[in-house]
């Protein structure tokens, strides 16, 4: 209001809202006056922002470099980059330098910025002894943090890196010694070549296990237990499966020792597995069939209900030496002809002695009578024909078949025909003259000059690290020795099998003490005065367990191994006594168990049950898959329950031939 309006007695007052609006407009357009405190804040920001930005950038870079270096130290990536230079350590040093440079750059930038502004800052007040210098207070705080932390972490990195190197040197058998991809490619190509050689149809007898070939996976690290069936799956459009089972084995309820199931049940299992791989199962042959064999007749009806064709082959008098009678209408001619539709007929069985070769030769007889060109070949992994006779891989096979009296030998027929030394086993060498005569009688001219010629095995070409396979095979020989001792003890047998394997071990220069878990378990048992178990994990660590009032030694060992794998401190109990006691009470008072101690399966069930409330238990359970392919030894013969669980976990187990003292 001007003076004249005031003189006339007139005045106007703005409301509070209008006054706030006027204030905002004035602040928007009027020049802003900076007070002393605001100027000090601005000067302070100018000093610190640049230094903070540079130090943060360098700190982040250093941290990222260090993290990558740590990853190299704890993984196999550094081996991929090359073992001649330790890249993880170099990166760790670079990280420390970068982090230390971040601190120095922060101080240097701050000092440089302050030099030009210290007089201006002093002009805004009397700071006295607290006047800023070239090392401001906020730079002094945590001055050595970056360097000290980096040095500590670098020491940890070095420790972990060389710890891992030590493990890799000690654990030779955990390395890869076999190239499965190369093997599968070469094997399928070889079979196709053999089909073509015989004019388009081949009966391929599968020796050994078509899948679940755990022996091969143990002596040839890198060989998958289902390599054979994977290879056949690549030929599934050409292949047809024929399964042979002896009717006599059905009547005797013969059991597969490795799986604990009868041969007839294994045929059903084989059919399901083949079909899961997309392979066509055409029929089942009941060899040595007799109409009075009621179990075999019932099994045939069961197969027919599953939609399978069943054929009968009969016992032939004078087999296999009476060649004229065998290759006649009264011999092979009496067998039912198996109708097939594809050019690769894979003949397999649940076990040895089922009649696979006889089935193949019988089919050849009928095919040639019908004017169908066909041939025969044998697909068997061991012995590996192009490895030396005393190579540990071949010796391990001899140890595995010691109960069958199989012996590896130089193939004399091959040596005579080609001047080339190859390895076969005694049964094939001994029976070859008879087979040769059968081929000549059926086909006119035998296509083979030696038993080695009959094979199509390319496993020898898949070995990529001979040292690894040699060490793994020696360990398998020791495992077979313990298995033989245990079998002889439990079945009260003479030590024939174990004595044969002991001779092989002596030839290889090895003993049971070369099995580290054996030594560890035995030494702990001597100290504790009770039965003990030991397991060697993938990183070389040996973990033990002892028999206690609540746990059997294998159960204690498994729990301790899971704790180690999960990184849980040894002092922490995964299962509290109050968790175990109700189970032991149930066993003794209601199930009439002779011992309250928990077996492996019971301990794992208890652990799983407590995992919902115990994070450590949940973490431990997740480590179970890491037990596959580990090595374990018990100082006493284990129960069937523990054996079954260890088999399912994939643990390579041995035991001393001693029973637990009650």
Give your account of this protein's structure:
With 662 residues, this protein is α/β, with parallel strands linked by helices. Helix content is 53%, strand content 10%. The chain is built from 28 helices and 14 strands. It has a 6-stranded parallel sheet with strand order 6-5-2-7-1-8, sandwiched between helices. It is globular and about 130 Å long. It starts with a helix and ends in a 7-residue tail after the last strand. The model is unreliable at 1-10, 73-88, 126-145 and 155-173 (pLDDT under 50).
Overall shape: it is globular
State the share of residues found in helices, binned by percent.
40-55%
The total beta strand count reads 14
Instruction: Report the major sheet.
Output: 6 strands, parallel
Q: If you compute it from the alpha carbons, what radius of gyration comes out, rounded to the nearest whole angstrom?
A: 39 Å
- Report strand %: 5-15%
Please list the strands of the largest sheet in the order they lie side by side: 6-5-2-7-1-8
Distinctive features:
about 650 residues, alpha/beta, four-stranded mixed sheet, globular, disordered N terminus
Brief synopsis:
With 662 residues, the chain is α/β, with parallel strands linked by helices. Helix content is 53%, strand content 10%. The longest helix has 39 residues, at 36-74.
List the helices and strands and how they pair.
Layout: H1 3-7, H2 16-29, H3 36-74, H4 77-81, H5 87-115, H6 118-122, H7 137-140, H8 145-170, H9 180-197, E1 202-206, H10 214-219, H11 227-233, E2 239-246, H12 247-251, E3 255-256, E4 261-262, H13 263-276, E5 280-287, H14 294-305, E6 309-312, H15 323-326, E7 344-348, H16 356-369, E8 375-379, H17 392-400, E9 408-410, H18 412-418, E10 423-425, H19 426-443, H20 451-454, H21 466-490, H22 496-508, H23 516-528, E11 532-536, E12 542-546, H24 553-566, H25 577-590, H26 600-610, H27 615-621, E13 631-634, H28 640-649, E14 652-655
Parallel strand pairs: 1-7, 1-8, 2-5, 2-7, 5-6, 13-14
Antiparallel strand pairs: 3-4, 9-10, 11-12, 11-13
Helix pairs in contact: 3-5, 3-8, 5-8, 9-11, 16-19, 17-21, 17-22, 21-22, 24-26, 24-27, 26-27
């Amino acid at each position: 209001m001007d003076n004249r309006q005031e003189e006339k007695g007139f005045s106007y007052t703005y409301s509070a809202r209008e006054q706030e609006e006027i204030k905002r407009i004035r602040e928007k357009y009027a020049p802003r006056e900076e007070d002393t405190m605001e100027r000090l804040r601005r000067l302070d920001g100018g000093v610190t922002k640049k230094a903070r930005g540079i130090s943060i950038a360098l700190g982040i870079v250093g941290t990222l470099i260090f993290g990558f270096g740590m990853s190299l130290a704890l993984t196999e990536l550094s081996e991929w980059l090359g073992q001649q230079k330790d890249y993880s350590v170099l990166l760790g040093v670079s990280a420390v330098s970068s982090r230390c440079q971040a601190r120095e750059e922060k101080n240097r930038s701050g000092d440089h910025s302050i030099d030009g502004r210290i007089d201006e800052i002093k002009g805004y007040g009397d700071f006295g002894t607290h006047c800023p210098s070239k090392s401001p207070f906020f730079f002094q705080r945590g001055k050595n943090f970056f360097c000290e932390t980096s040095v500590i972490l670098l020491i940890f990195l070095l420790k972990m890196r060389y710890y891992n190197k030590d493990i890799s040197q000690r654990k030779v058998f955990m390395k890869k010694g076999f190239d499965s991809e190369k093997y599968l490619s070469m094997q399928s190509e070889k079979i196709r070549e053999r089909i073509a050689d015989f004019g388009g149809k081949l009966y391929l007898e599968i020796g050994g296990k078509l899948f679940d070939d755990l022996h091969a996976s143990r002596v040839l690290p890198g060989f998958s237990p289902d390599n054979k069936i994977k290879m056949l799956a690549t030929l599934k459009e050409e292949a047809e499966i024929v399964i042979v089972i002896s009717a006599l084995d059905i009547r005797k309820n013969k059991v597969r020792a490795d799986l604990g199931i009868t041969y007839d049940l294994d045929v059903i299992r084989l059919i399901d597995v083949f079909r899961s791989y997309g392979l066509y199962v055409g029929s089942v042959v009941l060899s040595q069939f007799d109409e009075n064999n009621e179990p075999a007749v019932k099994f045939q009806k069961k197969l027919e209900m599953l939609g399978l064709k069943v054929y009968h082959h009969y016992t032939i008098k004078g087999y296999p030496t009476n060649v004229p009678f065998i290759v006649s209408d009264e011999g092979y001619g009496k067998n039912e002809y198996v109708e097939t539709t594809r050019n690769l007929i894979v003949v397999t069985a649940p076990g040895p002695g089922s009649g696979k070769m006889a089935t193949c030769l019988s089919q050849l007889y009928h095919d040639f009578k019908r004017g169908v060109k066909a041939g025969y070949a044998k697909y068997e992994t061991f012995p590996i024909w192009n490895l030396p006779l005393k190579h540990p891989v071949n010796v391990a096979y001899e140890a595995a078949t010691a109960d069958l009296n199989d012996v590896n030998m130089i193939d004399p027929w091959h040596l005579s025909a080609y001047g080339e030394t190859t390895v076969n086993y005694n049964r094939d060498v001994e029976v070859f003259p008879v087979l040769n005569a059968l081929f000549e009688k059926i086909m006119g001219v035998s296509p083979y000059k030696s038993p080695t010629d009959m094979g199509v095995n390319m496993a020898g070409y898949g070995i990529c690290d001979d040292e690894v396979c040699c060490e793994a095979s020696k360990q398998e020989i020791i495992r077979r020795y313990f298995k033989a001792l245990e079998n002889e003890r439990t079945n009260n047998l003479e030590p024939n099998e174990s004595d044969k394997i002991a001779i092989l071990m002596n030839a290889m220069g090895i003993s049971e003490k070369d099995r580290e878990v054996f030594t560890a378990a035995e030494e702990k048992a001597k100290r504790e005065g009770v039965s003990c178990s030991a397991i060697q994990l993938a990183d070389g660590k040996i973990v033990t367990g002892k028999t206690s009032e609540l746990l059997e030694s294998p159960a204690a060992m498994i729990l301790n191994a899971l704790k180690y794998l999960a990184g849980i401190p040894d002092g922490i109990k995964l299962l509290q006594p109050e968790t175990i006691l109700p189970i032991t009470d149930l066993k003794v008072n209601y199930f009439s168990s002779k011992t309250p101690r928990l077996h492996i399966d019971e301990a794992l069930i208890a652990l799983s049950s407590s995992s919902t409330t115990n994070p450590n238990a949940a973490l431990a359970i997740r480590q179970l898959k890491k037990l596959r392919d580990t090595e374990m030894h018990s100082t006493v013969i284990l129960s069937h329950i523990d054996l079954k669980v260890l088999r399912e976990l994939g643990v390579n187990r041995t035991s001393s031939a001693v029973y637990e003292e009650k």
